[in-house]
Amino acid sequence: MTRATVLLLPGQGAQRPRMAAELYGTQPHFTRAMDDFLTALGPWGTRLHDQWLRHAPNPALDDAAHAQPLLLALGHALGHMVTATTGRPDILLGHSIGELAAAALAGVLDPTDLPRLALARDQALGTDGHGRMAAVAATPADLAAHLHPDTAIAAVNGPRQTVLSGPAAAMDTTERRLRAAGITVLPLRSSHAFHSPLMAPAAQRFTDLWHSAGIRPRPPARTLVSTRTAAPLTAREATHPHFWTGQLTLPVRYWPALKTLLDTRGTTPGLTLLDAGPDHTLSAPARRHPAVRSGASRVVPLLAAHTAASRSRT
Predict the structure, then answer these.
(1) What pLDDT, on a 0 to 100 scale, did the predictor assign at position 191?
(2) Which partner for 94 in 99, 135, 144, 146 could form a disulfide, CB atoms 3.0-4.6 Å apart?
(3) SS3 for 86-154, per residue?
(4) Cα angle vertex 289, ends 286, 290, to 5°?
């Protein structure tokens, strides 16, 4: 039996200046997919293209209006490159907006839907949902006694890697409590409190825009392990627009999803984890899992090591 291939697709927080630029213009499948996506966005796509390829320092790339559509395009383009060069991945797993890229690669969404969804998601953000996010070196259970009532668990990225989200005042209180308890806290550069109840108005607008765009999702043609449910995506979930738009308000269960894969399929016959993230953090928690440490499963970064740096994902 051969190892199944799992393609890990990044979400906001993984962005880097000129991420995957070494492939642009040299790898035809990647280049074509990026150009198709950006061209479909018209003048906005031209601005995104220039922002993407601008050399560091480039703090504007941390703005959700730049980072999210570019990461969506990047994940989808890398999926096309992998499919063309080594074959279709057996399993897809995306972090936050990376799950929309995974949905297109799994056949749930048509590739031509992605630019329209990027535009709808950007329009949906509006002026709501502003707040703060922070990465914390602790488990959700460790944090329970310290959280302000308005602070939400936004993501579980690793065994002791949790992201918090909420209004600025609530986050200030929570961070003070955590530091007093000796827990490491790293504020994240995010203008919005993604994956928290503050995003509910934006999620409703995203739902309305999804329907007005006439996007009709289909059942998955390939296995997609959802980081919303930490389980394989079902046909019923895939075809319900709210499953995708409601993601803005709900936590990203990235580590539970990845751990379940490694626990159940990591040793017999094993997995090959293709890390499509520019910062290589998607595979970082897997490297400490027994299935990878034993050599039964392996990690393969898709992007050049010089783009990697340490930063938590939202």
Answers:
(1) 81
(2) 99
(3) HCCCCEEEECCCHHHHHHHHCCCCCCCHHHHHHHHHHHHHCCCCECEEEEECCCHHHHHHHCCCCCEEE
(4) 145
How crowded is the C-beta side of 96, counted as CA atoms within 13 Å? Answer: 28
pLDDT in tens, 156-209: 999 999 999 999 999 999 999 999 999 999 998 788 999 999 999 999 999 999
In which residue ranges of the chain is pLDDT below 70?
1, 305-314
CB 21 within 8 A of CB 303: no
Contacts of 110 (CB under 8 A, 6+ apart): 104
Residue extents of the structural domains in the chain: 4-127+197-307, 132-188
Is the CB of residue 292 less than 8 Å from the CB of residue 298?
A: yes
Q: Return d(Cα 16, Cα 12) in angstroms, integer.
A: 10
What's residue 13's pLDDT? 86
CATH class of 4-127+197-307: alpha beta
Looking at the whole model, is its pTM more than 0.90? yes
Question: Topology of 132-188 in CATH?
Answer: Alpha-Beta Plaits (3.30.70)
Q: Encode burial over 222-234: b for 16+ CB neighbours within 10 A, e otherwise.
A: bbbbbbbebeebe
Distance, in Å, from the CA atom of 254 to the CA atom of 155, rounded to the nearest integer, reads 7
Q: Are 225 and 232 in contact (CB under 8 A)?
A: yes
Upper half-sphere CA count for residue 213 (Cβ side, 13 Å)? 24
Distance in angstroms (rounded) separating the CA atoms of residues 228 and 238? 12
Cα separation, 91 vs 56, in Å, equals: 33
Partners of 298 in the β-ladder: 272
3-state percent breakdown (helix, strand, coil) of the chain, nearest 5? 50, 15, 35
CA distance 196 to 219: 27
> In which residue are the tokens 């499963």 written?
297
Helix (H, G, I), strand (E, B) or coil at 280: coil
